Each structure stands twice: as structure tokens, then as C-alpha cells.
Amino acid sequence: MPEYVIGIILSGIVGLATNIYTRMHKLDDRVDKLELKIAENYVTKADLMRFEDKLDAVILLQHDAVAPRVTTPTVGPLSSPITNLDLIENQP
Question: Could you tell me which of 67, 89, 68, 69 has the C-alpha nearest to residue 81?
């Protein structure tokens, strides 16, 4: 088989694969936009903030499981040690 036929076949396959990939990417973008529009209609700002707080709590629990809380020495006999969770909660 002549070499130019192999080149034509390979370029056709590559072109077809590129076309399919482009169409799938455009469809994925359209689905993402539709999902966002639907989510905007059903999720309120308060619900989103509550969900973010839950995610933050889970992340902190996982972080504490991997790296235990670091405590600083107490200043006086009645003061409690400061943990990294206290520092995160008291940030402005």
C-alpha cells in the first residue's frame, strides 16, 4: 500500500478524534452552565454558607486526625492552652 494512503487514513482518524473531542467539550460546557442555572434557582445563600461551614468542619477534623493540635504553654495557672482551632475561629 502506498505511503500516502497511510498518511491520509491517519490524518482522517486524527481529524475525526479532534472533532469528537471538541463536540464533547462543548457539550460538557453547556451541561455545566445548565447545572449552574439550576443550582442558582434552588440553593439559597444561607444554604450555601451552611454547607461551606460543614465542609470546613470536616476538613478541620481530617486535619486534626493527621496532625494533632499544637498547644502553646499556658501563661498562668488558670489560663487554658491555645490550640490551632482557637486561632482559626478567632480570625477576623
Answer: 69
- pLDDT, position 4: 87
CA distance 12 to 16: 6
Same domain membership, residue 56 and residue 35: no
Q: Which residues of the chain have pLDDT under 50?
A: 87
Whether residues 35 and 57 share a domain: the answer is no
pLDDT of residue 15: 93
Q: Give the pLDDT score at 72.
A: 54
Q: Which domain holds residue 60?
A: 45-92
Please choose, from the candidates 85, 81, 53, the residue with its C-alpha nearest in 3D space to the C-alpha of residue 68.
85
The total number of structural domains that make up the chain:
2
